[in-house]
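Budget justification note: compute hours in this period were largely spent on complex prediction jobs such as the one shown. Inputs:
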Amino acid sequence: MIHDPMIPFEATIRWIKKETRDTATYAMKIADRRIARAYRFQPGQFNMLSIPGIGEAPISISSAPEEEEILHTVRVAGDVTTQLSRLRPGDAVGMRGPFGTSWPLDEVEDRDLLIVAGGLGIAPLRSAIRRILHLARRRKTASCPTGKKFILYGAKTPKDILFRDEFPRYRSAFQVHLTVDKADPEESWKGEVGLIPTLMRHVSFNPLKSIVFLCGPEVMMQVFTKELTARGVPPEKIFVAMERNMNCGVGLCGHCLFGPVFVCKDGPIFRLSRIVDFWGVREI
Amino acid sequence: MSQLILWKEDLQQLFHRLQAAYRVIGPLAADGVVGLAELENLSSLPIGHRDRQGPGVYRLENVGDADIFSFVVGPDSVKRFLHPPVQHPYTFRKSRKRLHIASPRAAPQEKPLAFFALRPCDVAALKLLDKVFLESPLKDRRYQAVRDGVFLLAVNCLHPAETCFCHAMQTGPEVRDGFDLSLTELDAGFLVEIGSEKGKEILNGVPTAEATARDAAEKAAKLEASRSRMKRSVPLRALPQVLYNHLEHPRWAETAARCLGCGNCTQVCPTCFCTTAHDHVSLACLAQKEAQWCGSRVRLWDSCFSLNFARVHGGNFRTSRKARYRHWMLHKLAYWIDQFGTPGCVGCGRCITWCPVGIDVTEELEAIAASRNVP
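Corresponding output:
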């Protein structure tokens, strides 16, 4: 990183796409060309986005590294994200990053790949999905995963499904299964209703030769990791993306500690076996 | 390592040598406590003072002691100088379409810092802070700027306070490494050990004599007496596992019932490094038409005892005080070992002394470690 990781640089919003009632995707361009050229990220990493005067928030990158623009898919939740939702194309924000670990795409090889997302958890996984699609298109067989590939995605209601228009493209390389917690009465949802583990009955994979990328609310991930280990998936091959209060992004402020690991620096994507002793411990 | 004797009246000369090259920071009594501040001359040291410390108790008394260094540590530590309580990493000026960020160039320091009469626990604490801020892949550049060129003159502890347990943490009462010069106060003079080239160089022109076997024996006897006065013990070899095995021990709730959640322990701890940051917006720039906001980023010491420490939008990972106390103690005595290969506690006893209700971390650890059968 040529830039001091504690000091934000300027980024400009190129365009904004409203995804759902409370979530939008922001395309950013780094203003300084020298910083932009040196900026490299891997799927699963995050940036600290700041609106000076309001504050700073960790936001995962939802685009693939091959793509020109850096996308952030953000739900309105706190002060920073609310202010972000009021901005327009051309407006400037601060950015630091990229930080954290990434999805281990080089570990997939010929394993069956399960990409499991709950709600906004699809955002950092979209980066990995699009990278895989990119690799598949260019037939880079050396690095392209060759096993069965699944996307299991659950949202609250049909209206909350993110990137809905992209799923037809995903189906070219993945088996995509969707579910909603609650079907909207006015919409004619024909798909599955229920929590994400209900999707598991559609999925046939080899647990001993599989790898799982998991991102969603912590409770959902805890339930799902139990389900996976019960099926015989070793915790070494389950990867979870965690959320904690991240303030500095580089492991110096202590806010994101989860047991002995810094979520910002050692994570946010963890091999479950590394954190299994603290996984599910209340208020750790 | 050669050992020398420095006569007490020649300490002044060593001090002047230091002052010529460094900004000398040392112990200074103010407001009834020994703090750290820039020393103008040697006579401002709290000579002849003793600090009486206990759980929740600190009294500084002038006992007219002949020894110069008969006090130990107050609430202040080197942390304040290398990792200041308030920092301003950058300033910003923002209009709708543009954002200008300026990070103040580190002003060339007039002189590097020399810490005078640093205790072995604080030398150990400095080594731990180095691990946190300098051994991480993304190091803290501001810490590094101050840390480079620091001179450490350590003083071995012969009059430990009641709350001291450096012997149990194996960081004292004798400093073993990481110093430039170390002094042990004997009856007639100081036994000097040289820890670095810098230390050797500063002794140039300071009259010293070769130490004899009797001096070495006197030092050993005094340090042994000091060790025997420290009664607290820590089951170092059982860490961190003994704590990981007892995450749900009933003792956590009992301690939390006494703990006020005030965060004093984290503020006086020489190794607690957590910070938070927010934007400070000045009203002054509202007058300027083009600027929508201007201000500075402020980075402050934070405490894991504060309720908002682990808060994210829509939730808080540690709302109970029990969880916050457990988190603090686990970080000090367990997580640190996983993160940095050594406990984050140096045995200085500050958290015991400055806890308003006198919670004693060694007592808590002992209670949890003793009940090995409790799940």
